[in-house]
């Protein structure tokens, strides 16, 4: 029998599935070594629990969730997403435009599978959330990465977007607030992206999973609220804002100009039916979450846990020689830069491996997010303040040794 191997193309863009750094981390844990994990936004692992009313509603409803639902999802939670879209000023959304999924991740892949033929291109930000790059590749398309400019607060480079549009370009991905940088895009920039999409008849794929995880009084604008003559596919869910990663409860909204998208929407409906439905207990959490007390506001407010930890991580990192960070306005991550003159890194995966082996701190290398150079890494600031201080102290010690080794 011919050996079965994972697609190299796909494996190279799925940073959190396989790789020598994670393999090493698992080995160390199997040996009983304690690792401080700054590599993944698995919120519950850091003691941040979902709102109790969500948990209690799921418990009460669980005896009635054994059957399949409508392939798009139950009516009540889809209706609550319609109401949420109205709050976000996304016009013209009906229950038929809402698809519930096993997290936004499933729906992202579904939306691209329904669209792409071999050779089709999707514009994806660099750095990106690598699921997007992987899903484009898995769907037979070609991910084309446009640059987000660190000097401009990690905002998309509009000129670079324009340069990379070809006759094969079908859509553009906008991750706002951004993972991994924590950038939040101003309305004016979003309007310019909409105009580019309008001129080139592109679909806008809007990943807005962190739209309530905002700091310093910042406000999020849904890009789909800015036009009705462009087709928008907007993704959101409970994983981050409601600390419910494991519930796998997400949604997708189709809005804007649907007149010329009948075949595409038929494809979405077909793929939705093929997976039968998303998990019913997770669906039942959506209405309660969206209609209940928004406790995320307490966590991100001045003095709230997430805000304190963001400020602490920023302060500690920027005190390290040769490390610079754009302070996140949203999400749960920061994307520090290591000055190449002080840290002449040629293989940032090896850098992350050595940090793990020497200091028992797990990060993700910047190229794992399809960044163009081995000079960044992503750090999650979810651990409590004591663990965060300890982890960054270990990073500082490792970097001091690194500078010493490479200055000789």
Q: How would you describe this protein?
A:
- The protein has 408 residues and is an alpha/beta fold.
- It contains 14 helices and 15 strands.
- The protein has helices spanning 8-11, 20-30, 52-61, 75-87, 103-113, 130-138, 158-163, 187-200, 262-274, 280-291, 296-300, 305-318, 348-359, 385-407; strands at 36-37, 98-101, 121-126, 142-149, 155-156, 169-175, 203-207, 231-237, 250-256, 323-324, 333-334, 337-338, 361-362, 364-365, 377-380.
- The protein has an eight-stranded mixed β-sheet. Strands 11-15-14 form a three-stranded antiparallel β-sheet. Strands 1-13 form a two-stranded parallel ribbon.
- α6 (130-138) links the parallel β3 and β4 (142-149).
- The chain is globular, with a radius of gyration of 21 Å.
- The termini are far apart.
- The model is unreliable at 1-17 (pLDDT under 50).
């Amino acid at each position: 029998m011919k050996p079965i191997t994972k697609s190299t193309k796909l494996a190279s863009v799925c940073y959190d599935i396989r790789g020598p750094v994670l393999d090493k981390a698992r080995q160390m844990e199997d040996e009983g070594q304690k690792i401080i994990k700054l590599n993944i936004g698995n919120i519950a692992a850091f003691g941040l629990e979902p709102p109790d009313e969500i948990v209690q509603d799921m418990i009460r409803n669980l005896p009635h969730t054994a059957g399949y639902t409508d392939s798009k999802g139950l009516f009540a939670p889809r209706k609550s997403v319609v109401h949420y879209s109205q709050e976000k000023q996304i016009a013209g959304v009906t229950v038929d435009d809402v698809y519930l999924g096993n997290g936004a991740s499933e729906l992202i892949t579904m939306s691209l599978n329904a669209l792409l033929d071999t050779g089709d291109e999707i514009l994806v930000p660099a750095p990106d959330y690598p699921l997007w790059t992987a899903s484009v590749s898995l769907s037979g398309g070609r991910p084309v990465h446009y640059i987000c400019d660190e000097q401009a607060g990690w905002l998309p480079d509009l000129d670079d977007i324009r340069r990379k549009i070809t006759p094969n370009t079908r859509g553009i991905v906008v991750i706002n607030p951004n993972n991994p940088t924590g950038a939040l895009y101003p309305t004016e920039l979003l309007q310019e992206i909409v105009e580019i999409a309008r001129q080139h008849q592109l679909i806008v794929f809007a990943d807005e999973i962190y739209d309530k995880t905002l700091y310093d009084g910042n406000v999020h604008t849904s890009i789909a609220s800015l036009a009705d003559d462009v087709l928008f596919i907007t993704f959101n869910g409970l994983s981050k804002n409601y600390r419910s990663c494991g519930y796998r409860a997400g949604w997708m909204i189709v809005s804007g100009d649907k007149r010329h998208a009948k075949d595409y929407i038929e494809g979405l409906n077909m793929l939705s039916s093929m997976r039968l439905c998303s998990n019913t207990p997770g669906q039942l959490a959506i209405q309660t979450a969206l209609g209940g007390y928004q406790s995320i506001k307490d966590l991100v407010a001045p003095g709230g846990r997430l805000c304190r930890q963001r400020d602490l991580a920023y302060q500690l990192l920027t005190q390290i020689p040769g490390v610079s960070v754009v302070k996140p306005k949203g999400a749960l991550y920061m994307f520090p830069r290591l000055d190449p003159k002080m840290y002449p890194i040629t293989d940032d995966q090896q850098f992350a491996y050595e940090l793990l082996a020497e200091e028992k701190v797990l990060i993700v290398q910047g190229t794992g997010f399809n960044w163009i150079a081995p000079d960044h890494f992503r750090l999650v600031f979810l651990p409590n303040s004591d663990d965060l201080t300890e982890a960054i102290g270990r990073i500082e010690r490792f970097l001091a040794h690194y500078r010493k080794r490479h200055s000789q």
